[in-house]
Amino acid sequence: MVGPELIGCLLVKQQAGGEPLWGVIVETEAYSQAEPACHGHRRRSPQNDTLFGPAGHFYVYVSYGIHHCVNVVTDRAEWANGVLLRAVALPGEPERVAAGPGLLARRFGLDRRHNALPAGVEAGLWLAPRPARLQDQMDQWQQEGRPVLTATTRIGIREGRELPWRWYLAPSRSVSRRARGDATPSRSQAWRPEDTWPATAERPPEEAGRP
Predict the structure, then answer these.
(1) What is the distance between the alpha carbons of residues 92 and 3, in angstroms, rounded to a whole number?
(2) Which domain holds residue 96?
């Protein structure tokens, strides 16, 4: 599944002045047409049309008439499938500035105008692969027996709540909501994104075409 593979990847937006705004994706949530919590489960409409593909585009919708939520369309065309970007950790900023879909969209200035935008450098909004240093750190945590990725149930839905289709980077304090019984790591033990612009930030990841 794409959801856990996107943890540690970068969300990057080219700002008006030319400088990039970026952060590390630390929480995602997956949806599929086959299950009732997906926007495309019952019908296709002008509002959810983007979710039906093709993969590699952003699907942005408004939740409760207030908050924008940013998704990445995955899998095959004509089938509603996507991953909600729930939280991002930004270097040098408050740890919870984008800890939740609405906060994420607000910090990156994303709204319905970005719906159906292809995720690419040319469009000014893209995803980039997990930085090598973070991958090495995740491998080390795993070797040490420390939790790396936590899989748990999704948030804010009425149906399909039993599916463990939400993932987050366990050592991060920027997660919107942790699983029951999973304590937030102390600041001294928590992971934080580095300030250095990653070399991977100008290359899109290759997972978006998968389910």
Answers:
(1) 25
(2) 2-202
Q: Tell me, yes or no, if the pTM score tops 0.85.
A: yes
Residue 186 lies in a domain: yes
Contact predicate 194/203, CB 8 Å: no
Q: By CB neighbour count within 10 A (0-12 exposed, 13-18 middle, 19+ buried), where does 123 fall?
A: middle
Q: Is residue 211 part of a domain?
A: no
How many domains are contained in the chain? 1
Tens-place pLDDT, residues 160-172: 999 999 999 999 9
Residue 7 placed within a domain: yes
Single-letter residue type at 37: A
73 touches 50 (CB < 8 A): yes
CATH of the domain at 13: 3.10.300.10
pLDDT digits (tens, 9 = 90+) for 57-81: 999 999 988 999 999 999 999 999 9
